[in-house]
UniProtKB/TrEMBL annotation:
A zinc finger (CR-type) spans 165-246. GO terms for molecular function: ATP binding; heat shock protein binding; unfolded protein binding; zinc ion binding. It comes from Sugiyamaella lignohabitans. One of its GO terms (cellular component) is cytoplasm. The gene is MDJ1. Residues 75-90 have a biased composition (Gly residues). This is DnaJ homolog 1, mitochondrial.
Length: 476
């Protein structure tokens, strides 16, 4: 016997799910109704035999331990020579003798004395895929049920629209029943003929090794039992029963919907490409609308919460203050900023985020992150103010253009004299403030004098050049 792992093309460590998936894939490919090439029948039997072993945990363990010898004549569950194997009236190993590998298949009883008959509808309905792109259901009350494919459309909305909800117009294309022939595929006044392949039964029987018969849907008429002869096809759909149509519909997008979510509209998808017949029941697939929310220039979103970055000056961060924060609804909220606010500080404003989907009245929060903006001094006064501020806070790391201010010795002596006479804390604070203001005044005037001195020097240099030019005609 052939190695079942090689036949199915799976690894020895493959899971039962992977083995089953590969089995269905190969069984569809080499099914006698689909593959008419020489050797397809033998290949199909090998696939069945291999799956029979690998789909059964007990048999798979025996094969992994003993190899093909476990299934030779006289070999049993304990291995070669143990007896009680998988033999029977059809030989040491009948690929259809144990049906554990075909769970979910519709097995019938004996037929014409040639063994059991089983139906492979589930094989071709695996994953609900029909023969022509539609999805095939089971047989019920003598009818074949087909459902069309689902259709997906994408629509784009703004964050504001996602927050408020919107009735959105959606345009899409689907397969629809042909209006000319009503899905029959026939010209007016024409009739269908009985399928010559199945004789009108809608299924075909194949005799397999071991006396088993395999029933499957007729590949010529797709199970309807009838065909459309040449010259009788509908000129609109060309005997397909369906045509492509462009459509539009209104979709109610709920408030709070998130990017990438899908909305389902039942029965708005494709009609199955199957011809109408007395023994066929048809239903359309569904339409799925995928909603994409465009990025916002101000807000970031995480589920029902919104995030906003507010830029504030260094002075506001240090002293505290009040700013206005925009909301998604277009209004503004006044927000108090505490003193000594640090970069990256987050303040939460409750119930100012996105609506919570499927929770009436509930909203997320708006989270504000502060970015502290440090200005670059552009004038001498601004530089002097910042240097004085650095002096006041004993900042020894700050760069200074002018030397740090030092107290006047006479001021220090006067302060010492006052202290000895019982000066109060308030007078000390007043003296300190005067010292800061004097420091600030010195810095500002120093910068102003520096600028004035530079201007005067430039003017004097120009006048000197002019005098020299008047004295020496060659310099003119």
């Amino acid at each position: 016997m052939k190695d079942p792992y090689t036949v199915l093309g799976v690894d020895r460590k493959a899971s039962a799910k992977d083995i089953k998936k590969k089995y269905y894939e190969l069984a569809k490919k080499y099914h006698p109704d689909v593959n008419k090439e020489d050797g397809a029948d033998k290949k199909f039997q090998d696939i069945q035999s291999s799956y029979e072993i690998l789909s059964d945990d007990s048999k798979r363990k025996q094969y992994d331990q003993f190899g093909a010898a476990a299934f030779e004549q006289g070999a049993g569950p304990g291995g070669p020579g143990q007896g009680g194997g998988f033999g029977g009236s059809d030989g040491p190993f009948n690929p259809f003798g144990n049906f554990s590998g075909f769970q979910g298949f519709n097995f019938g009883g004996a037929s014409s004395g040639q063994g059991q008959t089983f139906n492979f509808e589930d094989l071709f309905g695996f994953g609900d895929m029909g023969g022509n792109g539609g999805r095939r259901g089971g047989r019920g009350s003598g009818f074949m049920h087909y459902k069309g494919d689902d259709v997906e459309s994408v629509t784009h909305i703004t964050l504001e629209e996602a927050g408020a909800g919107k009735a959105q117009n959606i345009e899409y294309s689907t397969l629809d029943q042909c209006g000319t022939c009503k899905g029959s595929g026939l010209k007016a006044g024409k009739k269908k003929d009985t399928c010559p392949s199945c004789g009108g039964t809608g299924s075909t029987i194949h005799l397999m090794q071991g006396g088993f018969q395999m029933a499957s849907t007729c590949g010529v008429c797709e199970g309807t039992g009838v065909i459309i002869p040449r010259g009788s096809q509908c000129g609109t759909c060309h005997a397909k029963g369906v045509v492509k149509k462009d459509k539009s519909t209104i979709v109610d997008i709920p408030a709070g919907i998130e990017d990438g979510m899908r909305l389902k509209l039942s029965g708005e998808g494709d009609a199955p490409p199957v011809l109408n017949a007395s023994n066929v029941r048809i239903s359309k697939g569904d339409l799925y609308v995928r909603v994409r929310v465009k990025p916002h220039e101000l807000f970031k979103r995480e589920h029902s919460n919104l995030f906003y970055r507010a830029s504030i000056p260094m002075t506001t961060a240090a002293l505290g203050g009040k700013i206005e924060i925009p909301t998604l609804q277009g209004s503004k909220i006044k927000l108090n900023i505490p003193s000594a606010t640090q970069p990256g500080t987050v303040v939460t404003i409750n119930d100012q985020g996105m609506p919570v989907l499927n929770r009436k009245g509930a909203r997320g929060d708006l989270k504000v992150t502060f970015d502290v903006k440090t200005p670059r001094p552009e004038t001498a006064t601004q530089t002097a103010l910042l240097e004085a501020l650095a002096d006041a806070f004993n900042d020894t790391h700050a760069k200074r253009i002018t030397p740090s201010w030092k107290p006047d010795p006479s001021d220090a002596a006067a302060n010492a004299s006052k202290d000895s006479n019982g000066t109060t804390a308030d007078s000390k604070s007043s003296s300190s403030e005067k010292g800061f203001l004097k420091n600030l005044f010195n810095k500002i005037t120093h910068h102003d004098n520096g600028e004035s001195h530079t201007s005067k020097s430039n003017s004097a240099a120009e006048n000197s050049d002019k005098d020299e030019s008047d004295k020496d005609p060659k310099k003119k």
